[in-house]
Amino acid sequence: MITCVACLNEIHNNSGRIDCARCKQYYHNLCINISDKNLKKMSDTQKASWQCPNCPSKQPRGDNTNTPVKQTASSSSSGTASSNVTTRKATKAAGESSIPQVLSSGALTSSAEIRDIINEALREWATGICTQLNEIRSEVVSLKDSMSFFNEQFEQLNAEVKAQKAEVRRLSDENSSLRRDVINLTTHCNQMDQMSRAVNLELQCVPEHKNENVTRIVQQLESWLNDTVFDHELLDARYDIFRRDRSSTLSFQTKKEGGGICLAVLKKYRALRMNRWESACEELWVSIDLGLNNKYRINMCAAYIPPPVSRDYLTTFLNNLTDVVNNKISNGSFTLLVGDFNLPYIVWESIGDQNVYIPEPNNGTIENMFIDEITFNNLKQCNYILNDNNRILDLVLVDNANIVKVAEASLPLVGLDPHHPALEILIHSLGNIKPCRSKRVALPNYSKCNFDAINEELTHIVWSEVWSDLYDIDSMVDKFYGTVLPIIKKHTPH
């Protein structure tokens, strides 16, 4: 039986065997790191001269004649070169086991010796492991100390950050409170400043005597007033003050501040606010007796249409205007409507020498709706004063253009606004001027209309029979109105 010196296993295949030329020991080629491929490439001469790894290490590398070893008498007398060779036992590398060398020598014959060698190798391995574990332990202790230090620093930094956050929160709350106070004070100061300097528009009536030129009626559009401002803070006791702040007209508004109307009338003239004439929009109606034996009155409306002008808002305002002008204003009185309508795209042009300005064509839907309504109510526009943008936002609408004259105020009561120049409206003597309407026209009162009866009659109409002999749309429309309007007139009082 042939045994491999390296693995101590039996060699069954001679083709995978290689013999040492010196020690005559047998090895598996794979046990000494020679692959089958390389073994086949080796020639017979190479195989015959091959030596195992242990044999070259045992052969002296030279005669060591230059080794500084003192020769003894016996050694010198021998005269051999090998007497000068220093035979030292090679120091075993740390952790290197001597088992392969012992196994290769073939000198072990008992299991007790093998056990001792294994125990010695395990002790050496355990000693190395313990040394490495001690080093790791010391590094872990150092890392633990570092982590403790960093944790203390982090806790200290975290406490400082929390303190700073609390301070920032306190300062932020204080800043918010101060900001609210500043906003309230600024708003109040702006209101007081606007009211102290009075108005955008001033209206002059008939003076008391020849040399007197006192403002009789003071009107301010977009007054910015609220419940915190009292009437006596606006003007002195010579005036009756009529106000409609935005807080009372929030039906169409999302902003609670801004807007509003203010009208002040000298107490010499009897003035009465007409609350029943006012809609949910920002408008203020006041009926003023000019002192001509109560013969003539001016029904004055101050209006403000906030931008951007919405269709619903303008429709509500115009419908109410039509109702007031046609149903509520008495005969023998005049209508004067002054307001900021914020319709800058309407271009007004003069018609000859008359004190009237008409709009140019080709306007938008909102503008055309406004123009149609004031034309229907026989109101004329008399203001021609342009603002800094060469547009007219403040309109003066009257039913008789002969009673007023509009000019730019020479001594405005307020600081000039680039969008709203101060206007002076002079009302001529009304003694020789007749009102536009000497007789009221009976108009349908649709608020008392019997809509149920109208609907009942309309449901019984068979329109296919009504239009059976008609073939063009114009004739059908005429037939439609000819059928519907008599039914409405039948059930609507005048």
What does this molecule look like?
There is one protein chain. The protein is α+β, with helices and mostly antiparallel strands. It has 3 domains: 1-60, Herpes Virus-1; 197-440, Endonuclease/exonuclease/phosphatase (Deoxyribonuclease I, Chain A); 448-490, no CATH class. It has 11 helices and 16 strands. It has helices at residues 36-41, 44-49, 54-58, 73-78, 99-105, 111-196, 311-328, 365-376, 451-459, 463-466, 473-490, and strands at 17-19, 26-28, 201-204, 217-221, 239-244, 261-266, 270-273, 283-289, 297-304, 333-340, 348-350, 357-359, 380-381, 394-398, 404-408, 423-427. The strands form 4 sheets. The chain has a 6-stranded mixed sheet with strand order 5-6-4-3-16-15, with no helix packed on it. A 6-stranded mixed sheet has the order 7-8-9-10-14-13, with no helix packed on it. Strand 8 (283-289) and strand 9 form a beta hairpin. Helix 7 (311-328) packs parallel to helix 8. The radius of gyration is 59 Å and the shape is elongated. It starts with 16 loop residues before the first strand and ends with a helix. Residues 71-83, 85-109 and 197-214 have low confidence and may be disordered.
